[in-house]
Design brief:
single chain, 251 residues, alpha+beta, 4-stranded antiparallel beta sheet, 10 strands, 41% helix, 19% strand
Length: 251
């Protein structure tokens, strides 16, 4: 199947909701026939105010959606990993109302909206899965708002660790209880509304309690049950339970 290795994370993502046919997968793989774009770590993929003419699909690396203030302060409001669309519907806007920045080196494809529309019309099951993808992104945003408004610093960080591990596991990018985790302490601060000093102290406390190991850009969850309890983590908002089984392809 052409380009299947590139499209594998997206297929894993979409099959969380509905099982795709081989024909569906072949059609999805054609999305990767558009030119590949590369962005270096810590560079912007798209800036607020730009014309969003394509739909960006992550192929490799981590990126973030963020908003910033004129004085340089920044809030990370979302994270993207392989298989994620940065925003399926962003092209209908005249101007980007947020920025997208690469955390690691990133490869992505910029899909013309017409190509995506043709895929959805020709393969309705793929369209349903893409709709689920966007609904889950909205659900994650709601959970992040709850984190910022109600959870303590310890709970916020624990919850983010649990969420990103579950998302990485859904695209088969984990080994046991270990997954890539390239966020710096500054990134964690901007994602959780805390200071880098507070992040550092909280991470030290988590290590002392035997909850996690975090080194060499990898996260290992040592005490799954305890970290989940502390975070009050309920994975229902990620909708990982194959909710669209009634739409499954036969093959």
């Amino acid at each position: 199947m052409p380009n299947f290795e590139r499209v594998r994370p997206l297929v894993h993502n979409l099959q969380r909701y509905v099982r795709l046919s081989e024909d569906d997968k072949r059609a999805i793989s054609q999305l990767h026939e558009t030119p590949m774009h590369k962005t270096k770590a810590r560079e912007d993929i798209a800036r607020e105010g730009q014309n969003p003419s394509v739909v960006r699909l992550m192929v490799s690396g981590w990126a973030c959606r963020y908003k910033d203030l004129p004085d340089g302060r920044r809030q990370i409001v979302g994270l993207f990993i392989p298989g994620d669309f940065c925003d399926l519907n962003v092209y209908i806007l005249k101007r980007m109302d947020h920025s997208i920045g690469a955390i690691t080196p990133v490869n992505y494809v910029g899909i013309p909206p017409s190509q995506l529309d043709n895929l959805i019309h020709a393969h309705p099951r793929v369209g349903q899965a893409l709709l689920w993808h966007e609904l889950v992104q909205d659900s994650i945003t709601r959970e992040w708002l709850l984190n910022l408004g109600q959870r303590s610093a310890f709970e916020r960080i624990a919850h983010l660790f649990m969420e990103m591990f579950m998302r990485m596991r859904a695209i088969e990018h984990t080994e046991g209880r270990t997954c890539p985790f390239p966020l710096t302490q500054s990134d964690l601060a901007e994602a959780t509304g805390l200071t880098p000093v507070h992040i550092n102290r909280t991470l030290q406390e988590m290590r002392r309690e035997g909850l996690i190991e975090l080194s060499s850009k990898r996260l290992c969850i040592l005490d799954w049950d305890r970290l989940k309890e502390i975070a009050m983590f309920n994975p229902d908002y990620l909708h990982l339970d194959h909710e669209g089984s009634y739409l499954d392809a036969n093959a």
